[in-house]
Amino acid sequence: MNQCESYANSSKDLGFGIELKLTKRLITQYDWSYPNIETNRGRKVSIDFCHKGGSC
After folding, report:
1. 9 neighbors 37 (Cβ within 8 angstroms)
2. Is 48 left (phi over 0), alpha (psi -120 to 50) or beta?
3. Separation of CA 3 from chain center
4. Residue 51: strand pairing partners
């Protein structure tokens, strides 16, 4: 989980630049599930390495 104690008082994004772009590219390429939920202290994300709607 990517979070920050002062996030609620800030408009800054806690993304990680190139790593985040590469992650999104791989997720799209392999059709993995990638829930990305904004919380009051950052974001909660997970990656399911099985294809969407299919089995591993």
Report:
1. no
2. beta
3. 12
4. 32
Whether residue 35 contacts residue 46, with contact meaning beta carbons closer than 8 Å, is answered with yes
Dist. CA 17–CA 20, nearest whole Å: 5
- Name the residue type at position 19: E
Q: In this structure, what are the phi and psi dihedrals at residue 5, rounded to the nearest 5 degrees?
A: -60, -35
The 10s digit of each residue's pLDDT in 13-45 is 555 678 888 888 999 999 898 888 888 888 888
Tokens of 3: 């979070």
- Of 29, 27, 19, nearest to 47 (Cα)? 27
Neighbouring C-beta atoms of residue 47, cutoff 10 Å: 13
Please state whether the predicted TM-score (pTM) of the whole model is above 0.70: no
